[in-house]
């Protein structure tokens, strides 16, 4: 009985830790354009899609950008909190805007 309780407790701890890691922040840096006149921008956006699925990130980001007349050109990369600050200056006004 005691061994079964220990196993259950370890299993619950493992599940709790995996849930926390699954909810880790994920960001995409991307390139977008607007026509007439042609304008381009590089930006960084937080996404809820898994951080290993660029197609899902693109699907999530397209409507956000489209609401302001921008078209997504490419997802450059997906990354976590550790890559966020070093992209702030490059993204400028489009840092976490969408």
What are the key terms here?
3 strands, signal, 98 residues, three-stranded antiparallel beta sheet, alpha+beta
SS-based class: alpha+beta
Oligomer: single chain
Share of helix, binned: 25-40%
Largest beta sheet: strand ordering: 2-1-3
Described by the principal axes of the CA atoms, the overall outline is: globular
Mean pLDDT: 86
Number of helices: 3
Tell me the strand percentage band: 25-35%
> Segments where pLDDT lies below 50 for 5+ residues?
12-21
The topology string of helices and strands comes to: HEEHEH
Rg (C-alpha, Å): 19 Å
Task: Note the main sheet.
Answer: 3 strands, antiparallel
Overall structural domain count: 1
For the record, give the distance between the C-alpha atoms at the N and C termini, rounded to a whole number. Answer: 52 Å
Number of strands: 3
Description:
This protein is an alpha+beta fold and 98 residues long. It has one domain (25-94). It contains three helices and three strands. The chain has a three-stranded antiparallel beta sheet with strand order 2-1-3.
Topology, element by element:
Blueprint: H1 2-22, E1 26-34, E2 39-47, H2 54-66, E3 71-79, H3 88-91
Organism: Limimaricola hongkongensis DSM 17492
Keywords: Signal
Signal peptide: 1-24
């Amino acid at each position: 009985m005691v061994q079964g309780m220990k196993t259950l407790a370890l299993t619950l701890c493992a599940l709790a830790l995996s849930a926390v890691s699954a909810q880790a922040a994920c960001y995409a840096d991307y390139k977008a354009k607007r026509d007439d006149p042609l304008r381009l921008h590089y930006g960084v956006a937080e996404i809820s899609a898994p951080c290993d699925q660029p197609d899902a990130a693109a699907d999530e980001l397209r409507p956000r950008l489209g609401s302001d007349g921008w078209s997504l050109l490419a997802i450059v990369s997906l990354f976590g909190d550790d890559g966020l600050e070093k992209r702030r200056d490059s993204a400028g006004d489009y840092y976490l805007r969408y």
